[in-house]
Design goal:
This protein is 54% helix and 25% strand. The chain has 171 residues and is α+β, with helices and mostly antiparallel strands. The mean pLDDT is 90.
Length: 171
């Protein structure tokens, strides 16, 4: 009976000092191996997409506003004029304003545009802005009726353009 009790205590000690820690270590290593396999799979996926990502980034850089602020403003104003003529809207005002980016890697030109026209013309104007190759984002659109029938509408548009150069300090 003593021998059986000693063997039971020995097995209990073996379980608590050797088997349980080994089982926990095995489970932790299995979880780590699973995490590492997932990381390797994601890394291979990134490597496979590298050429496409570089090509897209080069395209985005090419579509960004020019580094020269005056040229950027002129390009944007010219583009709005071209889109307005193509859509048949009357442009009331175009007011560009420079903003600093959240980092030193870029700056933004924010442009407020007021236009008037029919719903079809303003829709076409917005389409022209959206399909533009320039790096523009439409931040806000306001549409108001200019007459009682609603056939004449006014559009207030706020657009941001990306320039991959920080904003210069004013002299």
């Amino acid at each position: 009976l003593m021998l059986l009790a000693g063997a039971s205590i020995g097995l209990l000690l073996l379980d608590s000092l050797v088997l349980s820690p080994l089982t926990k270590a095995w489970q932790m290593r299995s979880a780590e191996i699973t995490r590492l396999k997932k990381s390797v799979t994601e890394g291979r996926s990134v490597i496979e997409r590298a050429d496409r990502t570089r090509r897209l980034w080069a395209e985005m850089q090419a579509q960004a506003m020019p580094a020269d602020p005056a040229k950027s403003e002129q390009d944007l104003i010219t583009a709005f004029d071209r889109w307005g003529r193509a859509a048949g809207v009357e442009l009331g005002s175009i007011k560009p304003q420079w903003k600093r980016g959240t980092s030193n890697r870029y700056s933004q030109i924010e442009c407020r545009v007021d236009a008037t026209g029919s719903l079809a013309a303003l829709t076409r104007f917005l389409y022209e802005v959206e399909k533009s190759a320039l790096a523009l984002r439409v931040d806000s659109v306001e549409l108001n009726a200019r007459d009682d029938s609603g056939s004449r509408l006014s559009l207030g548009l706020l657009v941001s353009g990306l320039r991959l150069v920080p904003l210069e300090a004013r002299k």
